[in-house]
Amino acid sequence: MKSDDANRENRVTEVPAEPKDSASEKKLRVLQVNKMYYPATGGVERLVQQIAEGLNERTDMRVLVCRKKGKGQVDTINGVEVHRASSLGVYFSMPVSFSFFRQLRSMSRDCDVIHLHMPFPLGDLGILLSGFKGKVVVSWHSDVVRQKKLMVLYRPIMERLLKRADAIVVATRGHIDGSAYLGPYRDKCVVVPYAVSEYLRRKAEESTPKQYIPGAPVEFLFVGRLVYYKGCDVLLRAFAKVPNARLTMVGNGVLLEELQNLAEELGIASRVRFETDLPDSKMAVAFENSDVFVLPSVERSEAFGLVQIEAMAYGKPVINTWLKSGVPYVSLNGKTGLTVNPGDVDALADAMKKLAADPALREQYGKAARERVQKNFTTELMLDQLMKVYQW
């Protein structure tokens, strides 16, 4: 007989095989709730859009988010009805919106499922106050790591919402094992891996493998917001130790000027290119032209690193970090790339130098990376598993 721990592990990692009412022809009415939606950028925002557009024909899907600032509005984006509650602005990464509660209560009245993306304290409180009696599915993207003082106020609300939830969706086992909060709710957790966007998947399939040119500089690529937990300063310091290489950093954020100044101080400004805003078409070119993708994140705020699977879809090896989150579960050390301790400049530099000096290893890891994406991180798989969770 299996132990309780073994049984619990199975419940964590398995998606329900069949929905309870799979024969029903009635479309489920689903309300997806998040802070923001396209054109706001970010991994979670891209995921919410993927789910909304991907399940729009299989469900009656609507989305409720907030404006960054301004009056509320309703948009239809690629066939998805998106309601944006008015907001006084964003403070501590949280929109301040009073109309959000009224809209959530009104929109939930005829819903079968509310799918909330956490952390989003406004959403937690809104669901608890709405009187909603249907199914609540929570996508747990990360713990709140930095705003520890605010957690004193938020945690009781968060705990009530997690107790209320019917299912907690996580992208990897690492989200559970590395969380300070999910342990008591492990039996509710279901692993549903994220997926590379359909646009980048198609572009990746159409792309031509980069040809190795002896003596040419090795192209390293970083994509992400320029914020504290991304470890961009560590990346620049490590890159300064890597000869005959170039680095492209795609992203914007509060640390942009500081990082540009650091590149100057390290004497590598001529080898580092900052791209603050790239459309999808040019982003695809950046992936195609790179040799190695680097995700040097230093805090558990980086819960998955969606850009990893985007790079892997292009057959690029990934250097990531041993965070207590889902990050090292995506690109696997010694199989699809290399994993180093977060914040360790020398270890990151050694990994970069190792891949820079070995084109055969880059090709080996890159091929395995693309195969891993095709097997584990497809949109079809993600959407099918989510539908089972909705119907379970």
TrEMBL record:
It is an enzyme of class 2 (transferase). One of its GO terms (molecular function) is glycosyltransferase activity. The keyword Repeat does not apply. This is Glycosyltransferase. Residues 42-194 form the Glycosyltransferase subfamily 4-like N-terminal domain. The keyword Methyltransferase does not apply. Residues 206-372 form the Glycosyl transferase family domain. Its EC number is 2.4.-.-. It holds the Pfam family Glycos_transf_1. It comes from the Bacteria. Residues 1-24 are annotated as: Disordered. Keywords: Glycosyltransferase, Transferase. It comes from Hominifimenecus microfluidus.
